[in-house]
UniProtKB/TrEMBL annotation:
Name of the protein this chain belongs to: YafY family transcriptional regulator
Gene3D superfamilies hit by this protein: Winged helix-like DNA-binding domain superfamily/Winged helix DNA-binding domain (1.10.10.10)
Keywords of the record: Transcription, Transcription regulation
Domain HTH deoR-type residue range list: 3-58
InterPro entries: CBASS_pafABC_assoc_protein (IPR051534), DeoR_HTH (IPR001034), HTH_11 (IPR013196), PafC-like (IPR028349), WCX_dom (IPR057727), WH-like_DNA-bd_sf (IPR036388), WH_DNA-bd_sf (IPR036390), WYL_dom (IPR026881)
Domain of life: Bacteria
Lineage: Bacteria, Pseudomonadati, Balneolota, Balneolia, Balneolales
Length: 317
């Protein structure tokens, strides 16, 4: 991106947000903080009314607007691809909202871009894997949680844990909504467990406001949640297994959901390295591959697979 395009993009980025930090701009455009300051100064000298608030960032003074923004065909194609990706989240109403927004964008496109988009629309499709679970989530929960995050309101939820087959009542400080695999999660500070937790949204049975508000500078933050999650990931245990050649075609993308890190071809198959937080779950997953997989390490995993195999043998015998 040349400097002229970057300056224009910066104005659009600033105009779409209440406050933007130098760090935000630096990371978004891949430039140094020094270059960000230089670009902001150039925009101010060109007459763009950019203000700043100490500790919060920069903003465009209310009332200033760019001329109507137009999209090129690459941006239009990206928006259409985004609409297809959003279709799987129809239960949260995100899909409907995205489609409505795209319809408004279509209405202001030039005829050439409209024709391009109409043609492309007929040639972009999404397909789900045959074994992909379609999770239904009451869209009202999603909207409720969105509002709670924005308004910094503590929520009371009834949460179902399938592993313990029980419901628990939790007061949660909502920090954000996250996508992991095929599911939406609420990231928050659980006051019952006094720790950061992730709650799968489709497992929230009941929910309500508590009437309690978080401070403007809350004690618990999404940034701290992310840092803790990163630390936990660094504590994952390394697993090395070898899949026989005939098993590889059946494995497909499953490895990416089990903490796959790397792989290399070896005599008779492929040796793969994973990082896992649960030897137990990993051992149970390996059972489905029968004698088509061999455990190299750790010893604990090999022993657990042997124990589970014996249990299965005794059970089916």
């Amino acid at each position: 991106m040349n400097r002229t395009d970057r300056l224009t993009a910066m104005i659009i980025y600033l105009q779409g947000r209440s406050r933007v930090t130098v760090k935000d701009l630096s990371e978004r455009y891949g430039i140094s903080s020094r270059t960000v300051y230089r670009d902001l100064r150039a925009l101010q000298e060109a007459g763009v009314p950019i203000g700043s608030e100490e500790g919060k960032g920069y903003f465009i003074v209310k009332g200033y607007h760019l001329p109507p923004v137009m999209f090129d065909k690459d941006e239009v194609a990206a928006l259409l691809a985004g609409e297809r990706l959003m279709e799987k989240w129809s239960e949260t109403k995100l899909s409907q909202s995205y489609s409505a927004a795209l319809d408004k964008i279509r209405s202001v496109l030039h005829s050439r871009e409209k024709e391009y988009l109409d043609t492309l629309d007929q040639h972009i499709k999404t397909f789900s894997y045959a074994d992909e679970r379609q999770v239904e989530t009451d869209y009202r929960i999603f909207v409720f949680l969105q509002d709670a995050v924005v308004n910094k309101e503590v929520v009371a939820i009834e949460y179902y844990s399938p592993y313990k087959d029980q419901y628990t009542q939790r007061d949660v400080e909502p920090l954000g909504l996250l996508i992991r695999g095929n599911y939406w999660y609420l990231a928050g500070w659980c006051r019952l467990r006094t720790d950061y937790r992730m709650f799968r949204v489709d497992r929230i049975e009941n929910y309500k406001k508590t009437g309690k508000k978080l401070a403007d500078a809350p004690e618990h933050t999404l940034q701290e949640f992310s840092e803790q999650s990163l630390r936990e990931e660094q504590d994952l245990e390394e697993v090395v297994v070898q899949f026989d050649e005939e098993m590889i075609r059946y494995l497909g993308d499953q490895k990416h959901y089990r903490g796959w890190v790397s792989e290399e071809k070896v005599d008779g198959g492929v040796q793969m390295t994973f990082l896992t937080s649960s030897i137990e779950y990993f051992a149970r997953w390996l059972l489905m591959w029968g004698n088509g997989v061999t455990v190299h390490q750790p010893k604990e995993l090999k022993e657990r697979v042997c124990e589970l195999s014996k249990e299965l043998y005794q059970h089916h015998r």
